[in-house]
């Protein structure tokens, strides 16, 4: 009787995905590969441009350029892990994805995805200090205050997830084991992190936008239209970072929240992969617009 009760509890609280992946239809897989390839190409172009257009000590580069490089590197590493997972899925009947392999893929995919979330949050705080408080936020030697939270926090969190054996395949790719409820590794690591970053970033950029709008009116009256136009351009560029961040990780957050209640439709799962794959393209477009 006790065994039956435990089994019922497991079925209520856990998403019962089979260990083997579901086959991704060709009409989904081929566009996904194409978009990922485009993101890799654009990210590589941005990376080469950044390296070739800046001379001297890397840590003397502008903060926005260093931030762009960190983001591009995270994009490329994320797509490398995602592509490796996809290739392994394709040959799974010859080389089955083991629990260890799935843990490695899931660890790498989430490490570089969450790193981007932390990078975006830290850069939002930096922009807030720069615009509102009119001072640079010290990033420490070798950008330690930027890189430590961006790389270190997910590294520690995901190491704990791996230690407790919480990586497993979901119907699309390797990730944290999907479980029902809000006190789970999946909700806390995937969903909550994304929503907290949205709240912080959107709040900070709204304050910045309102401040710039008010300053624009003052500048327009005091210094002429050109100064006001420059302020509006700054506000527009800042809003692009928010937009890309919300688009890139918003669907994943919605999917994670849905999983906490019920099994999400495969369309939502595919959408999260599609939009995640466009991250390199969107970041590349934003980079070009900011540096225009």
UniProtKB/TrEMBL annotation:
Predominant localisation class: membrane
| Any one GO MF annotation of this record | G protein-coupled receptor activity
Keyword Transmembrane helix included in the entry's annotation: yes
One Gene Ontology cellular component term attached to this UniProt record is: plasma membrane
* Bilayer-crossing regions: 28-51, 63-84, 104-132, 144-165, 185-212, 240-261, 267-290
Q: Does the keyword section mention Transmembrane helix?
A: yes
UniProt membrane topology term: Multi-pass membrane protein
Subcellular compartments? Membrane
Picking any one GO biological process from the record gives: adenylate cyclase-activating G protein-coupled receptor signaling pathway
Sorted keywords for this record are: Membrane, Transmembrane, Transmembrane helix
Query: Per its record, how is this protein called by name?
Result: G-protein coupled receptors family 1 profile domain-containing protein
